[in-house]
């Protein structure tokens, strides 16, 4: 336990660093320890690139919520302190000792408690209420908190080098429910409880973000909370999903000609996809299939639907995932693996792989990895 509250959001800022938020106002940043990298390489048989100044591991004080990094030169000193203070009445007040262990098999609970800890390196303060969502493009970290007023619904932009707040983006009236950077990393999409979305472009290396498109009461097609959003693999489209059981695709390339312009040429590009339940999560497949966009949609009752869309054919259902494989409560996130194929197989070529893996996270505390035969069902 580090946050002390239920976890709400997480964003990777680099392969060995992430930021996380919980039902508290502070963002915590963690970096991988050298022993974790070595254990991961040992278990997976894949080299893990790591820096030269990483701590060996981390230890957690008996009554503390923050962990403490342990560096190589501290190990010998700690061993000497152990020998001198083992009979001291103050020995129990010290930080528990970290003993480096190289894991060669998937860790059990005891190992997870100590040997896979990532040291906490930063605490970021700035939000007035509990964290709700965040996203990162490696250079910038965007975060938002619960809000019932416009002044609290701002998106904060953090510098991931100096870890300072570099700006606030204000466009929404209520809680921003999801943030997503485009694959090109220069566009930031935000969706909100106020039933609107906003699109921002990073204009400079000094955290300049300009509002380029957004919906309002007249142009927003959703009639309920927008829960989720996702970018298409080519960044030419994005999808929004809502409690109103609809999914819309928006684009500046395929936009419907007589649809209202939301800014910079972005228009709605599809009719609303009607699903049986409130849509709580969406994610695009990382590549086009037969010139079509494939989308996974998670729903409030735990179901998952796979659909595809193109400007020519509009929406077509591919399949509903069997209820025996789906969660029993609301789906909170769906995410396709960036590469085709099973993780237990050696990846060779997209063209020879028929299956994609889809991760589904739910309110029932489960994380499921499903194998979806996209190409076979789309043909």
What does this structure look like?
With 379 residues, this protein is mainly beta. It is 9% helix and 39% strand. The protein has four helices and 26 strands. Strands 15, 16, 17, 18 and 19 form a five-stranded antiparallel β-sheet that branches. It has a four-stranded antiparallel β-sheet with strand order 1-2-3-6, with no helix packed on it. Strands 7-8-9-10 form a four-stranded antiparallel β-sheet, with no helix packed on it.
User: How many helical stretches?
Assistant: 4
Helix content: under 10%
Q: Alpha-carbon distance between the termini?
A: 47 Å
DSSP strand tally: 26
Structural class given helices, strands, pairing? mainly beta
Q: Which spans have pLDDT < 50 for at least 5 consecutive residues?
A: 346-350
Mean pLDDT value: 88
Proportion of residues in β-strands: 35-45%
Give the overall shape, derived from the CA principal axes. Answer: globular
Largest sheet descriptor: 5 strands, antiparallel
Rg (C-alpha, Å): 23 Å
Give me the strand/helix succession. Answer: EEEHEEHHEEEEEEEEEEEEEEEEEEEEEH
